[in-house]
Amino acid sequence: MTEKNRFYAGAATALALAVALGFGIAQLTGSDAPAPEAPAKAEAAPSNEVVISADGISLSQIGVAPAAGGELDAAIPAAATVEATPDAVAVLTARAPGTVTRIFKRIGDPVRAGETLALVESRDASTIATDRDAAAARERLAARQLEREKRLLGQGVSPRADYEIAEANLAVAQAEARRASAAAGAAKVASDGRSVAVVSPVTGRVTAAQANLGQFVAAESELFRVADPSRMQITASLPPADAGRVRAGDRVELTTNDGRMIEGRVRSETGVVDPTTRSATVVITPSVAGTLLPGQLVKARIFASGGAITNGVMVPQDAVQTIGDRTVVFVRTTKGFRAQTVQVGGRSAGLVSILSGIKAGTPIATTNAFLLKAELEKEAAE
Predict the structure, then answer these.
(1) What is the CB neighbour count within 10 angstroms for residue 134?
(2) pLDDT tens across 348-377, in order?
(3) Which domain holds residue 351?
């Protein structure tokens, strides 16, 4: 190899080493390559938005239809309960503590006003009867003494002062006798003088019987209930908007569980909204009450003379949902649905009137809207 060739070979080797060395340093000291930017997160949907595709809507069987305009039927449906009127139910108690010795009536038996249902033997009854008899005896004695003093006064044997004292004694004895007799009557002391009678003040049927033969009962403990089936009323709870349409005298159709139809009339509506149920109570008088029983459930259709709700927006009852303290319907959007707050009016035949919040023709979720509500609540919890 010539001197010139050796020179070129050495230069090439040096260049290769420099390149390799420079590459290693760059690897050790050079700044790291910038990391690729993370993809931007999708913008979070608002809390009242539910994002769902058309396929998702179809799979969830969520019905979509425009809100309809029209009027709400004047007939208001309501679940109602049969109750006895306050003056038709009597709670029968023992007026004194003692032992039940006789029972004359059981559940379902007819009862006349003033009839005895049971006897309770009581020492208190004996005391009350003794006081009554003693007071009556003192009254008879005072009456005889007055007659004697009147006779002696007429004969001039006794002074007039003795007659006046006897007259006063009789008045006191009569007052005491009346008091003792009233006490015995209030306690329903029986003729045997040792028992108190359990007496019904109303005519009807025994609806509850808690007395057992030989049982010791405390004073004023309940033993029987008697209800007059001819004096029944029916109470129905209505939303405030519906209750405001009801008037006293409005006709009512009542349907029992076995399909019987009974006419009735609205007797009154309270006009007061219960803070717990947010409903008002309407009291209905049935035209035939003898076949109804306290506690029985019936369906009522109240034909409100306040009229139908006109020029409103009507939506199916299933479309209306409650989220927290808001009443909403789900309006269809390009991305899914939006929970729209609405003001609800009356309800009838499965429809709800919307007073404000949406217009007629607005596309809304009409069925399975509860699935959208559940999705919103799930997102809020996460």
Answers:
(1) 13
(2) 667 788 888 898 889 999 999 999 999 888
(3) 49-73+309-381
